[in-house]
UniProtKB/TrEMBL annotation, chains A, B, C, D:
UniProt lineage: Bacteria, Pseudomonadati, Pseudomonadota, Alphaproteobacteria, Sphingomonadales
Superkingdom of the source species: Bacteria
Keywords: Iron, Oxidoreductase
Residue ranges occupied by any Sulfatase-modifying factor enzyme-like domain in the UniProt entry: 185-317, 342-419
Protein name: Ergothioneine biosynthesis protein EgtB
Pathway given in the UniProt record: Amino-acid biosynthesis; ergothioneine biosynthesis
Keyword Signal: no
């Protein structure tokens, strides 16, 4: 989109701006001012903060930088709602985001309207770089939609009243299909963004990698399979674990996926956005860390796929399909079904890969503040692929690289097994 | 009040129940749901929690235990709003009180009304022990009124927007009167509660102590005097400090009272319930820890008084006078004025004493859960005397023993100097 | 000793200098260089450090300050072996004392000889203030003799090989005598140092206190009694504990006195300077914290004595009697025996009192660096009385105030019960 | 070596056993018992522990498992000297290795002799698997030789006396040659162990990787270049750093490589095994973390090489050349010299690569306890290549993968710059 966009492109962009902004607002709909203010951990953020930060992004990089005469809604708020852009100056400490009862949820929603109005007013006159930043801002906001859901889940999980933020959605099939696998011949493949449509900088440059023959499970690991791991002593035997993973299990007294409770007699319950419910054995396991995923795979005589294997395998899958986020609701992973060779590649759960999040060969961060987007996080994290039930439909793609630290598990993260052939 | 109360006493109790409950509600008036939900530190509590806990106290010890057929407003809330009574079973961890966006402020206010109605309905039939507990509950609630104000101050101090929760109140005199002192002959004196009117268990039994001759400053130490301490290097010279105090200064990088900022050129500002304002040199210094108060006294060639000295000296002062809490407002300590031999003995700032909080000779904790009230805290804390600008008028008395850890300073705590003669 | 000492006094001082220094050396006799280097915790110090620090004390305050032409053994060592005297400049961090393999034990012993020789050479010419400091240095060194033993115990307790630093000493009586008690009328008593002979500054000034009638157990609490406390669930019931004590029990998973192990079926073993042995029910319990002592007393329907009660009761006891340190050996508390009205008041175990360590009325710290000796520690600690099996005979006296934090228990600290009458 | 070894191979193995064991002993020669006992941090170990652990390795995996009738030197020592092999049962906590003054250095040296004698006695009868384990044990012991040196450096760096463990060695050239670079065409290359001679499991399987054209600096970055980075504000500007690296710099107040001091006016000194000396600008920088190396490279407009690039480039270099460990001495990195296309590829400093330590495609951990050797550490660490001045000559090879966490820097770790072409 380096040159002037066509009218059709502009109309599409504007439509997406409307719909993305509306979905964010809808996610906030059931929240009280207090709900939207809490921060469950330094890793997560208050809903109010997500609402404001995504607006600050447009206000700063589109309106302030590209719209003459724009005056910020409140000059003091840049300090509050900058996330991690050192180039944008001092900011409120991340771990203190949950101490801001003011501005209120209502004021933040007004801020959103103010920014939206200003963007729409300026829309037809925005220069090409501003349109690129607008596009970036929409993908950025979609990321925060997913984070809003997972951070709200973490927040309400702290409340002993077992609150259901949205009603429970209808159940899926009773049982998971047995796990099959698909074989891949390996060889030289290309991964990374093709250059059509939007991608984040970390997905580039597209490049060749050599793969050995491998097989990939045709669906994600289920809760039922995870319960077998627990019952086989998976959390008690160091031999399944990396040294760091085992240290984490002991120090944090980990015995099950996050949000699970109970378990004597295997009758686990889990807390979700729909409140407390029995663990469904047919659903994909979610809220497991890389340490756990890696240990499970070793226990199962398998391994995690590399991100290149995953991307090569996903070439034939449609990223618009699957259980992804379409509207504000109590999303949850659903049992695999259908006849596809590979099921659940997109949606349901982010799939941990064995690949550390590193720059692709030839990677260059963008110039300027926006260049802080991904590059500076390329250490100590692992890549996840495929999107989850909380990922807005249309946001994920085969080359998409999500990343988290190996102990983190408040996202909808699960796994799919791989093996050498 | 061990026997049946007279009608007059009953009417007075009922009036006080009305007025105490109303003041608590008024303190909450400017708060949004989010304001009332935040917890600034594990030492402090959300306003909503104070509102609920003080109601839980009446619900549990008066209604549940003494009113046949009373059904709790919500059975799950005892877990949430018990403070520290081990005898009342499991409770929500103190450090997690700030993670409860539900129940909402509105629901908590409904709870208050429900409890008030039930108490008033049962009032004429309450047995004598229940009336004693009602009396205890009112004093308990007054303590929480002060904590609400100081915890709100701590909460809003985290917000960089410098919010004024209430408007600034009219200023006091321009300058502090010079510090004089009153002399006391010592000898055998009696301290502790006399047995007329209400007192907490820790104020008993009344007993004799031997005092040596001493003198006591006729007013509290001011901000202006504290600035001189800072400018004389008070926070840089270990010789003024106890070993633990010095370790605290170094570890926490303490350079001024809590809520102070600035200070190059001595132009300090301080954050208060009325927002950000220049430090007034004439006002008593507040928000200093015992470590700081002790070091200041040593620097000044003086010492802190013992609690017995303070109480003996206060015998001639009226606990109903002074700058205390009468209504919800941006309270702050005010400059001393007047002709009294001892000024500011009640109100303005709690005064640190040199006395560790220990049981009086012959002290016995009450039987049952209510016996956990004070006794179990009699270690590692120091006694403060006299009440502050945030103490509800009528709550303090000469024998009143407040107590905090020597590093704590989010209360309105200051000091008055003493010397041996 | 403010004026010139008599020849007799000088001879006595010199003899004591010889014998105190010899005992320190003897305690170090079984130690390897490595044994003497280790530091088991930041609270404790390596034996080598004790050996050097006690010599640095004489070198600095006697030789450097009062002997013309004295040159320090090694100028760099003042930095290493100053303990906590801020007036003496920068010093090696306390928590890093265990990282000094050099100077070696041999070099430190040479340093001791060097200092001793210089002191003895200058002895007859020392001015009166230097003799006072020499006297102070001897009492200081006796304190470190006890610390050497308890720090060595803590060090070797970290070694799983169960090493006996000295051979086991012959056993005491088979059973403890049943606990009786002595009654005291109270009234006005005097406590504090009388002014004859040496005392630390914190024992002064002597002053009057008012006591109520009380009774005091005629011996210390035994291991057998402590096992009954454990078996009665003493460590499981919060009602016995102060709030801080209970928090400590939970956080540190405390289940028995320090150095005890085992305990299913009550067959406890304990590690001592004589290696691993079964717990002897007749011996006084040692290595319990103030939190534990206070909880035990409450469980037993009693309380800890105040330090004034203890001192008043000890008036008739001989501080030179009892199980105290006479020579380097595997000291341990021994069962009470004999016909005395009060047994074990001196020796066996330091007895926790209910008194926080605070300045006596009128207390003034000495001028100069030596004035840091005790005053700056008068916060957050509790007073213990009477000396232990590791206290050098002649060091303790009725007015002696030892002090430790309420969670500390690596000293030989136990308790004696008191009750109001 | 799966089949019976030839006599020539046996003789060579025996000679190497003699010489490797002798070098370890020589490294310990200047140590006192106390020197050998200290542990400077949980990451490092006491010299005594290294001496014992390397002997325990032979005792356990060779003598116990393959020599009939062998009785362990002391049955209690397996608990003390197992490092991290969960398969070998419980072990002394790593962080407590520095609390073992017993067994003494002398006893440990006796243990070494005992094990050596038993190995040599059994040598001619050892079955092939035992010879493989013996070979493994020698490489294992060489790793610990390097760790002994770096752990001793860390230990003595804690001692303010600035002790030189060995005399300073003669200086190198006065100035570093200017940095040039070598170009590589990329394409498909093979990396990993070829299968001739010994390698650790993590170097296998050999496999193909695709490389893009790149250039590699012809020598390591020097101290002089690092000082320019410091003076350019390298430690003050977040733009050079990964987010985690910047957090580490701020939290730990990092301002220079480890063991450097001073620096106002650029006159840095550094502590080494030869004591305190001025930083030599011509020597390679050592003791920098991955975070620092990565930031430096970004500042220099370059990047770290991948491990595959490094290994491909090293194909033409002789791993037996360079500044490596030949005898116990105050090793230090030396200025580059000579005409080679790539200098310092082996020896001087381990070179951080941009590659996380991950399993090679098709990697399988060995069966049994020895399989814990490397596989369980394949998370959160980065690969370093090439060996250092403290690596025993003959230990390194082109395929060798060393690994440390990105914040660790007590090894001799430096960097070499790379760039895309």
């Amino acid at each position: 989109m380096a040159t002037r966009a066509s009218n059709l492109q502009l109309t599409s962009l504007r439509d997406r701006f409307d719909s993305v902004r509306a979905l964010t607002r809808n996610i906030a709909a059931p929240l009280s001012d207090a709900d939207a203010t809490l921060q469950p951990s330094p890793d997560a953020s208050p809903a109010k903060w997500h609402l404001a930060h995504t607006s600050w992004f447009f206000e700063t990089f589109v309106l302030r930088d590209h719209v003459a005469g724009y005056r910020p809604h409140d000059e003091r708020w840049a300090y509050l709602f900058n996330s991690y852009y050192d180039g944008e100056g001092a900011r409120h400490p991340r771990a203190k985001r949950g101490m801001l009862s003011r501005p209120s949820l209502g004021e933040i929603l007004d801020y959103r309207s103010h920014v939206e109005e200003a963007v729409l007013n300026a829309f037809l006159l925005l220069p090409a770089p501003a349109l690129d930043l607008l596009e970036l801002g929409l993908h950025h906001e979609q990321q925060h939609q997913e984070l809003m859901l997972t951070d709200l889940l973490a927040t309400f999980a702290e409340n002993p009243l077992g609150i259901a933020l949205w009603p429970r959605q209808e159940a899926g099939p009773d049982a998971a299909e047995s796990m099959g696998c698909a074989r891949f011949a390996g060889g030289t493949v290309e991964i990374g963004h093709r250059g059509l449509g939007f991608a984040f900088d970390c997905e580039t440059p597209r490049h060749q990698v050599l793969l050995r023959p491998f097989e990939l499970a045709d669906r994600a690991v289920t809760n039922g399979e995870w319960i077998r791991f627990i019952e086989a002593g998976g959390y008690q035997k160091p031999g399944h674990w990396t040294a760091d993973g085992w240290e984490w299990v002991k120090r944090c007294d980990i015995r099950a996926p996050l949000y699970w409770d109970g378990g004597s007699d295997g009758d686990y319950v889990r807390y979700g956005l729909d409140g407390l419910h029995p663990v469904d054995p047919a659903e994909p396991v979610a809220h497991v860390s890389w340490y756990e995923a890696d240990a499970f795979a070793r226990w199962a005589g398998a391994r995690l796929p590399t991100e290149a294997e995953w991307e090569a395998a996903a070439a034939g899958c449609d990223p618009l399909e699957g259980n992804q986020l379409d509207s504000a609701a109590a999303v949850r992973p659903r049992p695999a079904h259908g006849q596809a060779r590979l099921k659940q590649m997109f949606g349901d759960v982010w799939e941990w890969t064995s690949s550390p999040f590193s720059p692709y060969p030839g990677f260059r961060a963008a110039e300027g503040t926006v260049g802080e987007y991904n590059g500076k996080f390329m250490v100590n994290q692992f890549v996840l692929r495929g999107g989850s039930c909380a990922t807005p439909r249309g946001h994920a793609r085969a080359s998409y690289r999500n990343f988290f630290y190996p102990h983190q598990r408040w996202q909808f993260c699960g796994l799919r097994l791989a093996r050498d052939i």
